[in-house]
Structures are given as C-alpha cells and as structure tokens.
User: What shape does this take?
Amino acid sequence: MWQYYLILGAGIVLFIFAFLSFRNTLSFLKKAEKTTATVTSLREFDSDGIVFSPLFTFRTRNNIEYTYELPEGTNPSAWSVGETETVIYDPDDPSSVELYTYFRIFAWPLILISIALPLLVVGGGYFIAHQFLK
Assistant: This one.
C-alpha cells in the first residue's frame, strides 16, 4: 500500500511543477514580443557525427540586433541560411528567446503533465477503489 502513497505523491509533485511551469510560460507569453528572425549561419558541431545548429538574427522593437542560437542541432540541417522563422523574446531581456511554435513554448508543461496524470490516476485510483471494494 505504501507504493500507492509514493505514486500519488510523485503525481502530485509533478502536477504542481507542471502548473508552475505553465504559469511561467503564460507570464512569458503575456510580456513577450513577436518578431521575424533570419537564419544567418549554421554552426557545425561534432556529436556522434556532424550536426548543424542554426544562428538566428532578429531585431527588437528598439531596432537592436540580437543573435539566437538554437540549443539543438540536426543532421541534415533542418534550416538553410536565409530562412525565416517567427520568434518571441522578452523585451526586458532580449537574450530570452524562443521559436514561436506550440511545442517549443509548452514543452515542459506538456511533458510534466503527461507523466503526472497517469501517476495521479494509478495512485488516486487505488484509494478511490479501496473505498468501494471493502
């Protein structure tokens, strides 16, 4: 029976982290500004073979140019020099940039909630079923 307490506890903790992550994401989205970024170059890295990471350049509303490097790479490259993509950035800290896609913005809340919900169902389900199966 103690295993179900552990499962339920882990589910609750992960659910809380998912909620906090979702709240932080919404806070970022409320103040973020949207702009178009252009791939200016591709960086090559040796990671079990050559992978390419794009460097995006964008201008803020104040007409200041910033560069953002995507934190992961692919082989073959998913980007070509000159391609454009929509990005969002924090106007108070333009180095805080994300590509404007659903999964990139909501990745952590989605991952955490997808782990938390089954744990809550299994852990909480045991205690609910225990009430009816006495």
